[in-house]
Amino acid sequence: MTDKRFRDDLSRQGLGRRRLMGAGALGAAGWIAGGGGWLLAPKGAYAADAIKMGIATDITGAIAPSGNADWQVAQFTVEQINKGGGVLGRPIELYLEDTASDPKIAVGNVRKLIQERKVDVVLGGITSAMRQAIKDPIVNRGRTLYIYPQLYEGQECTKHLYCTGPTPAQQCDKLIPYLIKTVGKKRFAMPSANYVWPQLLNKYARKVIEANGGEVVFEEYYPLDQAEYSATIGKIRDGKVDCVFNTVIPPGLQPFFKQLYESGFQKRGGALACVYFDENLLNYLPAEEMDGLYSCLDYFQSVADPFSKQLQADYAKRFPDTKYLFTAGSAATGMYRGIKLYEVAVKATNGDLKREVVSAAYDKAKIDQGPGGGAEMVPAHMHCKMNMYIAQCKVDAGKPRYDIIGKSDMVDPKEC
Amino acid sequence: MLSEAESELAISSPSEKKRRGAAGRARRFRRVLPYIEVGALVVALVLPFVLGDRTDLVTLATNVLILSMLAISFDLCWGLAGIMSFGQALFFGVAGYAIALVGRDLDFSDIWGTLPLAMLVGLCLSGLFAAFLLLGRTTPSIIFVAFGTLTGSYAAERLVSGWQYVGAGNGLSSVKLLKLGAYEFVEGDTFYFLALGLLLLVYLAARYFKRSQLGLVLAGMRQNEERLAFLGYRVQLFKALLFSFAGLVAGLGGALYSYHQGFIGPGNMGPGLSTTAVIYCLLGGSGTLIGPVFGTATVEVLSYALSDIDAIRHIWPVVLGLVLLLVVMFQPRGIVGLFVSDRERIGSYGRRRSSS
Amino acid sequence: MGDEVKLAFDLLAFISVMVLIVLGLGIIASMMGIFNFAHGEFVLLGAYTVYLFESSGWSAWAGILAAPVVLAIVGLVLERLVIRRFYAAPIVAMLGTYAIGLMIRETIRALLGGQYKSINEPLSGAFTVFGLNFSVWRTVIVLTTILVIAGTWLFLSRTSTGLQVRGALENPNLARACGISTGKLYAATFAFGAALAGLAGALIVPLYQLSADIGTRFLVQAFLSVMLGGVGTFEGPVLGAAAVGGMAAGLPWIVIPVLADPLVFVIALAIVKFRPQGFITQGRI
């Protein structure tokens, strides 16, 4: 209700499209608290036949930092598209629903996007739990296209559900051989948060470790909010582990890293690898606990290609001093890719938004540029090829950063 | 045994008793509850037609009906049996998981099989809990029972969130749709009427319990458990029976919830939802059965309406807490207590005498 | 050998955390018969106080010192306004304190924007004894816990106020008849319990992270500790906390961690069922 009235008001005041464009990106897309969630609507005459895009992400709750980064990147990307004239002249309208880091709440809120807002596509979900919970209301019951942007455990082969984040194969195939062959670590421990991403990632990682001559000393799962890890630290020490392949996530992460560091694991020459670590995590933990940590993602801010640099600069201009960074680990790069691929797909269908049609086009979509490089859907495999980077965390005068130590081009997701 | 203040929360206050004594003699005793009950039923019957094609609101209304079962289940424990259960969601959640698993692993979701199964799961589980918590040589303290239910629900939530077979922290999603023959219940009017019909059955059964001679025993128990025990009633057994029945009701609700949402997760069996049920019931008015339904509707509709207003969304749980606090402190009889006399709230038992 | 010492230390540190959290809860439960469901939120408020001090440029130490004071005031105000209506009505008290806890927790969740905040230890790093590394902050926690236990014990056993408290605990009516103002004592007890919770929160927050759920994470365990140890005594809850904390840290050695976690609750509940009076039935002070 409110948003429509507001929009009418604005057009009556003669705030046409050109003038708003001049006001810059922030002005071009006003913030309107609507009757449901947030609506980011481009003003002007063409708002009527806009493409409705739903974003379901965690604005509050445990993983709110990632969710907010996701939401900002979605706004940023859509504003760029709208500024360039939209998709075939049609603007994209963004609708946000908070999934609140709680699948129970999310299921209800996502339904609003589908039933009340009637969006054409939904992007979002960060944890696997969230994806599992919301995919059914979106894809099956809601008959809507769903794009999942986060790095994840793989094996999601639902029709009309496309994944634009890295898979275990993309994250492990280069990193683990590097750890074994180049860094020279042989005995791996896999402490993990107990949910599906660590389970399946570890399954894949274990295969790669063993194929490369390494050994898994133990693989163990903890409640997500585990507060006490002395038993784990004991096993790491007793097992003479020299590489911890960590998939413990916050809130259990903080006490684990603290106890691991206090036990002197790193000082004894142990290596720590954690494939979800991006720039956001650098501000999250004391720097010394992360010194030397290996990560492998589709993008790091230290990647030097000009397009990525420009993207970062534009993002910084749009959200000055934001604490929600444009990084890989929090699904933000996947979000960018997902939206751009959707743009390509809708162009390919000549503006037909029917799910089956767009979905068929999405399956073959390809973008040449993006954070860390382009991306290309692997037809009939629901996942996309992308560049992958191995990086190591270095601490200089208490300030952590990532140094890129390896790049592989257009890595195959090996899924479905 | 309940202390004075607690029986106030469950039944009525001493000062109220005095007032009632005076006013009750002066005024003819009029029944209000049946009118409220019939009114609520009529509203519930026409609601989907009023809502028309607002599927999201029908979904919300269905949700209210389903959660009402949980609230009634809690009311059976607290309002009728005087058991403070902080774990009512446990039976709700476990039954929801049970039918989701039956759907996933046995590919079966036929209404004639799964709903009775869910009730059975709820009944057995709550029966076991009742046996552990309530029965035994020593009479358990009411606090032990309260913590027992709380702990059970909390431990179950944590166990399930770590158990891969049941989806661990992810819960179970893509729950098979509930089927009647070849017909599949998706969210919408039919599911609404199914939930309404089942809620009505549950309500009538609970009402029968409350108004029967058993209800009289229970009312006596809440007032003075020791005296009842002295009179030869096996008080703990009565409590256990009612607790088990409440578990059955919660189980049915859990199954419907699971089918309706297409998702069930560890949070659906934890203390969070359990205490929400407490809020539903106390806000609406415990011991009245219809009160919990009102409480559920009030809380859920308001949360839905307010969740979009950013400023309020964040403080909404705070408001709920404040409401609970105020209810506990100043209006232990809840919303329904505003309209219904205590005499009627506590009820009359057996057949009603012709003169009144 | 060294590893065992180190692990024993980790265990001791975790038990200290549990004891710190449980102590305030136990004192309030023993003295007033109230199981304070808002205790987890008192812990949270203590942690939040440190965060406020730290984020506004003060030293975290100031926050740690301020937390018990802040919480004592909060406790006193709540006792005067709300809690005193709940005496001798344990279930109403549970609901009422739950409601208070919910309000505090959700307010802070909103203030934090639902996020996790890291707070660095005021004393970070480790010190080395016989070639073994010990975390400085965990040592501080262990020592503080010992000090608090000793201090509380001395207060209860050696001072005349302590005697009044014990008297009111044994027999409130008789205590009142002797001219002891139980009302004041109760208010003071509640404030003291809250202050202990605040201290606990302030000390543990660097180990974990500040989130709205930092206190509730330990609440059920704390309740079980009190029941396990025995309501109505001073030592009981301490022993109970040691038992529960020891189980929570020790069980992952024997069974897989995800199973160990709920198992702690089941074992504790079963013990309470078959020994409802708790470990300690008679106070020994």
Walk me through the topology.
The complex is a heterotrimer of chains A (416), B (356) and C (285).
Chain A: H1 2-12, H2 17-22, H3 24-28, E1 29-33, E2 38-42, E3 51-57, H4 64-83, E4 92-98, H5 103-116, E5 121-124, H6 128-140, E6 145-148, E7 161-163, H7 168-172, H8 175-183, E8 187-193, H9 196-211, E9 215-222, H10 230-238, E10 243-245, H11 253-262, E11 271-273, H12 279-282, H13 287-290, E12 294-297, H14 306-318, H15 332-348, H16 355-362, E13 366-367, E14 375-377, E15 384-396, E16 399-411
Parallel strand pairs in A: 3-4, 3-5, 5-6, 6-7, 8-9, 8-10, 10-11
Antiparallel strand pairs in A: 1-2, 2-4, 12-15, 13-14, 14-15, 15-16
Chain B: H1 4-10, H2 14-26, H3 33-51, H4 55-80, H5 88-105, H6 111-133, H7 142-160, E1 172-173, E2 178-180, E3 183-185, H8 189-211, H9 213-223, H10 225-230, H11 235-261, E4 263-264, H12 271-284, H13 290-306, H14 310-330, H15 334-337, H16 342-346
Antiparallel strand pairs in B: 1-4, 2-3
Chain C: H1 2-32, H2 39-55, H3 60-81, H4 90-112, E1 126-129, E2 132-135, H5 136-158, H6 160-170, H7 172-177, H8 182-204, H9 216-229, H10 235-254, H11 257-274
Note down, in words, how this protein is organized.
The complex is a heterotrimer of chains A (416), B (356) and C (285). With 416 residues, chain A is an alpha/beta fold. In chain A, 39% of the residues lie in helices and 22% in strands. Chain A folds into two domains: 3-166 and 305-386, Rossmann fold; 168-302 and 389-411, Response regulator (Rossmann fold, 3-Layer(aba) Sandwich), CATH 3.40.50. Chain A has a seven-stranded mixed β-sheet with strand order 1-2-4-3-5-6-7, sandwiched between helices. In chain A, strands 12, 13, 14, 15 and 16 form a five-stranded antiparallel β-sheet that branches. In chain A, strand 1 (29-33) and strand 2 (38-42) form a beta hairpin. Mean pLDDT of chain B is 84; it is low at 1-5, 11-26 and 350-356. Chain C has one domain (2-114, 130-274): ABC transporter involved in vitamin B12 uptake, BtuC, CATH 1.10.3470. Chain C has helices spanning 2-32, 39-55, 60-81, 90-112, 136-158, 160-170, 172-177, 182-204, 216-229, 235-254, 257-274, and strands at 126-129, 132-135. Chain C has a two-stranded antiparallel sheet with strand order 1-2. Chain C is globular, with a radius of gyration of 19 Å. The two termini of chain C are 37 Å apart. Chain A binds chain B through residues 33-38, 60, 98, 102-104, 107-109, 111-112, 115-116, 128-129, 132-133, 135-137, 140-141, 194-196, 199, 221, 223-224, and chain B through 54-56, 59, 63, 158, 161-162, 164, 167-171, 173-175, 186-187, 261-263, 265, 267-268, 307-310, 313-314.
